[in-house]
Structure formats: structure tokens, C-alpha cells
Write a structure and sequence with these properties.
The protein is α+β, with helices and mostly antiparallel strands. The chain is built from 18 helices and 18 strands. The strands form six sheets. The protein has a six-stranded mixed β-sheet. It has a three-stranded antiparallel β-sheet with strand order 4-14-17. A three-stranded mixed β-sheet has the order 5-13-6, covered by helices on one side. One of its GO terms (molecular function) is unfolded protein binding.
Length: 545
């Protein structure tokens, strides 16, 4: 009797249905191709003239934006190599809040250059070694190109100037509107120790209508809702915050009350109401005239109105936390009178109408607030969301400036200068990694090339002019997207944050080297039942049970 033994080779080693790809042709080049496709998607969105992408998420929400972080997040990329680049861009977003597109585009360009070297017969270890050397040297020489240093972190004009380039790259034409708003909001909440600045303390509230130019900064918290009850305006407010419902509560232990007549029921209800009124009176006796809670019962609302207490309903725990931070109040989990330390203070709490939307504003007029809110106006929801993302990037930039106030010339000038430096280093390198070093220098030129291309210029001619200018010892010459020529980036006040750029180059280099190190893909069979019918082809649908 003849038996069947296990299969030979990889199929006998792994579980049935597992796919595996190995070697340069199957694994490395396929990974590089996936990363190149991702790079191609984002290339056209870089710079002030970058185009928007229209992405519809699986939930049906529509995104119209040129923000790389939003695009890659909503695309739901599944290719494992491309996801490595996405992870690197997410790290850049968390650390610096900006230059996420630079990470993916530079990493994709490095891999595209590596593909040519692999086809020439260069080993991946030589390419990785050359890329790591070049990335290290590029980051080492960038501080030598520092052209501007922010002097006063509390000067609105200086901070606005430093934030203009970051904002212009996403909302070209609105930088003069958004930059002063972000500068004012950040400076108003700047702590004594500037290194402890938190981006969470600058919030954005979107109110439809008007134009972006009508946006404003409010030093305090803003809720887009109306106050309950009759009190709509309180000055010198004493604020108590409760994370529980403000109403007649149930007993902590279970019990049964036996009522034998209607009179007993009325007496019982009156007793409950009397207890609640005593609690409200005890709270008012502490000086509280504004109560924030997740919900107000009808009876509780009656007694709060009776004692002229303003009621702010706030079902969101996050908004409640911001109100507590703004007023320096301590949220209480139980309905009880607050102590003096638990009561927050606010100069004005009022209901105001912005456009046609009623808002509750906690405004600090006398002393500095710990929270600032930028009220963004706009004609469409997509426009407001794009401005919100732009504000978020600018606030992250301010946090980066509080830690390192140095800037280098923008408009692709610093990339060209770094490319020249790396290329000269490659000429002197003795080993085979010199080819990878020089390819790294070519990859750095992708930013000025893309800036020129997205503004409708000839990238080849622009790159030649830039290289010629930098060879003549003009390290600040970059791309002028308006005139279609080269320009002095410092004269145009175009600057990039040094630490953000260095971090982006480092992450892009590491991501590219990680992809190049992969020589085999092993993918287990996906779990689950049959495919959904709308994802089946016509042939598959006929075979479905």
C-alpha cells in the first residue's frame, strides 16, 4: 500500500493557503513598486499649488484635501511595504505635525532610485549602507544652513512670519488670515515654561457661514449649543462641573418603598424634591452661579432657575475636560457641594450668536486662559475641515519652535544645498556604496522638482537653474511658484522648520532601508467566510452557494 508523505519545499513547511514571495524580482521590486504608487499619489499634492484628493471613506464620509496625513489615513492601504511608509508618516505627524508628505515622497523616491541600482547588480546591503551614511550626513549639515531664528516666542508678528510657510503650503492665499489667528491663540496660552506647551490647549470650533477671513480667536472654551433655563449671561462666574446627571438620583442600595395612598405618594415626591432643593441651595451658598453637567432633570432645572444659576449641558467628556481646564475647575463625579478649590472661575459665561449658531462661550478677559479656541468660519464643511487641519499643523509647528527656534530656507533651497553636499561626499566615497550615496543626493531633488511641476513649470529647466545658482554660492535660492523662476527664499520670507525637516529625512531614510531589507513575503490565508456579494465578480457570483 502506497502512502502519501508531507509535501516537499516551502508548501510542506507552511500552513495550506499561505503565499510566499522571495528574491529580488518577486519580493523587493514588488515592494518598491507599491511604494512608488503611493509616492505618485502624494506628489501632486505637495506645495502651495498642490492638487486636492477626493477620498470617500468606507463610512461614506467625503474628504477633499491635500493633507498627506488625512489622505493616507483614509485610503486604508493594505500592502505591507506601503504600510511601512504610512507608519513612518504617522510617526512624523505625532512628533512634528507637519512634513508627512515629505516622508512618503522622499522614501518613495529613494526606493525608486534603489530599483535602478538593483537592476545594475548592486547588492541591497551596499544600497542600505550608502543611504544610511547619506541620511546621517544630510541631517548633520542642515544646521549649517540655518538662516533664521525666532527671537521672541510671544511676539505675534514674529510667530506669524515663522508660521506663514507651513500654512501657505496647504492653504495658499489664506496664510495672512490664518497665521495671526494661530499665533494669537498659541501665545495666549503659552505657559511660563515654554517647553511644556501642549497642542491640546488650542481647540477649533467650526461654525458654518461667512468666510475664513471672519474667523476669530476666543480665549476660553466654546460650545456650539444653547444654555438651558432662563439665565444666559453671567459675569464673574463661579463654575461647578459634574460628570453625573444633575437630577433626583436613586439610592445607592436597592430598596422597596410601600405606598398605600395617593397622599403618601405626594409626600414622598415632595420629600425627594425638598432634598434636591437643599442640595441646589448648598451649591449656590458656595457661590456657584454656573453649573456644567451631562444632563439636567426637569425638577433640578426648576430649582436652578429659581436660584438664578446658569445651566450648561455638555454630554461630551472631552469638551467638559476643556471647560475644566479653561476655568481651573475640578470635575465632580457625585452631586454634592464643591469645595473652594473645586470651583472654577471665569470672567464671562454667556450665550452669543455667531452667524445663525448659538454658542456658549467661557471667556477669560482679565487673566490668561489655559485654553484658546479658534472659531473657524467658512462656506462649506470641507473648507472648514481643511482649515482645521491647517491650524493643527501650524500649532504643532509652534510647539516645535518652542523647543528649537531655528529655520532653514524653504522653497526647495535647503534640499538642493543638502543634495550638493551629499553628492560631493559620494564622489569621495571609496566603496560600492558611493553609487547609493549619489542616488540619495538625486532623491533629495524631488521636492524642488515637484514644487516646479505642480506650479506648471518645466521641472528640468527649474532644477538646472537651481543647481547653477547654488554652484555660485547662493544657498538660499529656491523655486518661485508665482513668477516661474528662481528666487531668494529669504527675501520672500519662505522658511522651513529645521527640526521638522531633519526628522522627516531621518524617518524617510529609515523607512526606505526597512523596505529594502525585506527579501521575502509570507502571507497567511485570510480568515473568514465567503466574500461579500458586491465584491464578487460575475463568475464568482454564479458559484456562490
Amino acid at each position: 500500500m502506497m502512502g502519501y508523505g508531507p509535501q516537499a519545499g516551502m508548501s510542506g513547511l507552511l500552513k495550506e493557503g499561505t503565499k510566499q514571495l522571495s528574491g529580488v524580482e518577486e519580493a523587493v521590486l514588488r515592494n518598491i513598486d507599491a511604494c512608488k504608487q503611493l509616492k505618485t499619489i502624494l506628489c501632486t499634492s505637495i506645495g502651495p499649488n498642490g492638487m486636492n484628493k477626493m477620498v470617500k471613506s468606507y463610512m461614506g464620509k467625503l474628504f477633499v484635501t491635500s493633507d498627506a496625513a488625512t489622505i493616507v489615513r483614509e485610503l486604508e492601504i493594505v500592502h505591507p511595504a506601503a504600510k511601512l511608509l504610512v507608519t513612518a508618516s504617522e510617526s512624523q505627524e505625532k512628533e512634528c505635525g507637519d512634513a508627512t508628505a515629505l516622508v512618503i515622497v522622499l522614501a518613495g523616491e529613494l526606493l525608486e532610485k534603489a530599483e535602478g541600482l538593483l537592476r545594475l547588480g548592486l547588492h541591497t546591503s551596499d544600497i542600505i549602507q550608502g543611504y544610511e551614511k547619506a541620511g546621517l550626513e544630510a541631517c548633520r549639515m542642515l544646521p549649517n544652513l540655518v538662516s533664521y531664528e525666532l527671537g521672541d516666542m510671544k511676539n505675534v508678528s514674529e510667530v506669524s512670519h515663522a508660521l506663514t510657510s507651513c500654512i501657505s503650503s496647504k492653504m495658499h492665499g489664506l496664510e495672512d488670515v490664518i497665521a495671526p489667528l494661530v499665533a494669537d491663540a498659541c501665545i495666549s496660552i503659552l505657559p511660563a515654561n515654554i517647553n511644556t506647551f501642549s497642542v491640546e490647549n488650542v481647540r477649533v470650533t467650526k461654525i458654518p457661514g461667512a468666510s475664513v477671513a471672519d474667523s476669530m480667536v476666543i480665549k476660553g472654551a466654546v460650545l456650539t449649543s444653547n444654555a438651558q433655563g432662563v439665565v444666559k449671561h453671567v459675569r464673574d462666574a463661579k463654575v461647578a462641573i459634574y460628570t453625573c446627571d444633575f437630577e433626583m438620583g436613586q439610592a445607592e442600595t436597592k430598596g422597596t418603598v410601600l405606598l398605600t395612598s395617593a397622599q403618601e405618594l405626594m409626600d414622598y415626591n415632595k420629600g425627594e424634591e425638598r432634598n434636591l432643593e437643599e442640595k441646589v441651595k448648598d451649591i449656590v451658598d458656595k457661590g456657584v452661579n454656573v453649573v456644567v453637567s451631562t444632563k439636567f432633570g426637569e425638577v433640578a432645572a426648576h430649582f436652578l432657575d429659581k436660584y438664578n444659576v446658569m445651566m450648561v449641558k455638555c454630554p461630551s467628556k472631552h469638551e467638559m475636560r476643556r471647560i475644566a481646564r479653561s476655568t481651573k475647575a475640578i470635575a465632580l463625579p457625585k452631586l454634592q457641594p464643591p469645595t473652594i478649590d473645586e470651583i472654577g472661575k471665569c470672567d464671562v459665561v454667556s450665550v452669543e450668536e455667531i452667524g445663525s449658531t448659538r454658542c456658549i462661550i467661557f471667556k477669560q478677559e482679565q487673566e490668561g486662559s489655559r485654553v484658546a479656541t479658534i472659531v473657524v468660519r467658512g462656506s462649506t464643511t470641507n473648507m472648514q475641515e481643511d482649515v482645521e487641519r491647517c491650524v493643527d499643523d501650524a500649532v504643532h509647528n509652534y510647539r516645535g519652535m518652542s523647543r528649537d527656534p531655528r529655520f532653514v530656507a524653504g522653497a526647495g533651497a535647503s534640499e538642493i544645498e543638502a543634495a550638493r553636499f551629499v553628492d560631493k561626499m559620494g564622489e569621495k566615497a571609496p566603496g560600492l556604496d558611493q553609487y547609493a550615496i549619489r542616488k540619495f543626493a538625486e532623491a533629495l531633488q524631488i521636492i524642488p522638482r515637484v514644487l516646479a511641476q505642480n506650479s506648471g513649470q518645466d521641472p528640468g529647466v527649474m532644477l538646472s537653474n537651481l543647481i547653477a545658482a547654488h554652484e555660485g554660492n547662493n544657498p538660499y535660492i529656491g523655486v518661485d511658484i508665482d513668477e516661474g523662476t528662481v528666487c531668494n527664499a529669504m527675501d520672500k520670507q519662505i522658511v522651513d522648520h529645521l527640526a521638522t525637516k531633519m526628522n522627516a529625512i531621518t524617518l524617510a531614510t529609515e523607512a526606505a532601508c526597512t523596505v529594502l531589507r525585506v527579501d521575502q513575503l509570507i502571507m497567511a490565508k485570510a480568515a473568514g467566510g465567503p466574500k461579500p456579494r458586491d465584491m464578487m465578480g460575475p463568475d464568482d457570483a454564479d458559484e456562490a452557494p
